[in-house]
Amino acid sequence: MTIVSTSSVAASSWSDVIADQPGEALVVALSLTGSAILGGLLLRKLTTRTRTLRNLVLAITLASLLIGALAAFMLARLMVLDGQQARTVIGVLAVTAIFATLLAVVASASLGRDAGRVEASLRRLESGDRTARTDVRRADELGHVARALDELTEQLDQLERERQSMEEERRAMLTSVGHDLRTPLAALRAAIEALQDGVAPDLPRYLRAMARDVEALSSLVDDLFLLSRIEAGRLELTRERVDLGELADEAVEAIAPAAATRQITVRLRCDQSINVDANARALGRVIRNLLDNAVRHAPAHTTVEVVIDGDDRPIVRVIDQGPGFRSDFVPEAFESFTRAEPSRNRASGGAGLGLAIARGLVEAHGGRIWIEPPPGGTVGFELPPAAA
User: Fold this and answer.
1) For position 380, what pLDDT does the model report?
2) Contact 316, 244 (CB under 8 A)
3) 222 within some domain
4) pLDDT confidence of residue 8
5) Most buried of 7, 92, 130, 284 (most Cβ within 10 A)?
6) How far apart are the C-alpha atoms of 24 and 84, rounded to whole Å?
7) What are phi and psi of 84, to 5 degrees?
8) Integer angstrom CA distances of residue 243 from 10, 118, 261, 288
């Protein structure tokens, strides 16, 4: 007795049908292909209209089962399947549709939820909320979109914070400039009115005071112009070989008279000749700014020292015996228009540009500047060594 496997019979039946009815088999193949393409186009159009991705997944699942039912019907027409087999296949597909629908609904739950999160984040971002995040963690395309949206929102949030910070700095700068201009201008106005009215008792003293006010205004304008060039990156420095000791000595001589009026001694400690490639005028300005700041805050009958060391890299330290910088002020000490004392008076400080200019000039030379912790107030900076 010969036993023939079912798969062999099925394979023979398929080949026999195609051999006996090649035209009809081709029509069936083309019909199924066209139905799949038409269904795909309809589903593609559905993607632009459906409100949720879960509906789209469900529609794709059901469309696939319909294509299977159509294939069973076509095979029955070709007599590959008899009527009973075709009904069985269609019944199986109907049952499969129920469970496939349940599967699609459950499996697409996270897809719909994450898509809703992305949409909600976009709505919040559109309303101006820069803290909105999707918190979607997926490896598919939706996850890529969610991560890109979160990164974009973070960048927008950072830009907004920077804009607000710049706006606050701009307002603070205008307030500071207005305050520092108003004081000498008011003094000049009062002196001119006194001269015009002929009530100035001591003309030379009034003229000297007016000259000091004009000098203060000129110095402030020069500082603002220099600082703007530094911050804009347009500062051009012509460098040459200079001796740090000589520059510091000149700065000490320039500051000594003003320090003497406050009963403060200024001295230089430099045991060797230390050369650097720098702009002498700019570097001298740095040392004078640091000395001027130290003298303003040093107690009377104390000493302010400039210490230069060049064992490894040229380092300059300006040391005073004052209380030093407050720990909460150190992070912003080198910012423009910042002062350790809230009150802005000409006796205890200037416009708050000295350290900002010093930092800009030091960094323009490729160096760095810092504030050392108490006791005492010490500001130091280092420069690249001179080329061989």
Assistant:
1) 93
2) yes
3) no
4) 40
5) 284
6) 21
7) -65, -40
8) 101, 63, 29, 15
CATH of the domain at 357: 3.30.565.10
Amino acid 338: pLDDT: 72
In a domain, 64, yes or no: yes
**pLDDT, position 367:** 92
Residues of the chain with pLDDT under 70: 1-25, 27-28, 32, 35, 39-41, 43-56, 58, 67, 69-86, 89-112, 169, 172-177, 179, 339-351
At which residue do the structure tokens 């400080």 appear?
Answer: 349
Question: Which of 48, 74, 107 is the endpoint of a domain?
Answer: 107
Final residue before a domain boundary, out of 107, 134, 157: 107
Q: What is the 3-state secondary structure (H, E, C) of the chain?
A: CCCCCHHHHHHHHHHHHHHHCHHHHHHHHHHHHHHHHHHHHHHHHHHCCCCCHHHHHHHHHHHHHHHHHHHHHHHHHCCCCCHHHHHHHHHHHHHHHHHHHHHHHHHCHHHHHHHHHHHHHHHHHHCCCCCCCCCCCCCCHHHHHHHHHHHHHHHHHHHHHHHHHHHHHHHHHHHHHHHHHHHHHHHHHHHHHHHHHCCCCCHHHHHHHHHHHHHHHHHHHHHHHHHHHHHCCCCCCCCEEEEHHHHHHHHHHHHHHHHHHCCCEEEEEECCCCEEEECHHHHHHHHHHHHHHHHHHCCCCCEEEEEEECCCCCEEEEEECCCCCCCCCHHHCCCCCCCCCCCCCCCCCCCCCHHHHHHHHHHHCCCEEEEECCCCEEEEEECCCCCC
CA separation for the pair 216, 360 (Å, rounded) = 21
The Cα angle at residue 114 between residues 113 and 117, in degrees rounded to 5: 90
Structural domain tally of the chain?
2
User: Which residues are CB-neighbours of 3 under 8 A, at least 6 positions away?
Assistant: none
Domain that holds residue 74: 6-107
Any domain includes 159: no
Question: What are the pLDDT digits (tens) for 131-159?
Answer: 788 877 777 777 778 888 888 888 888 88
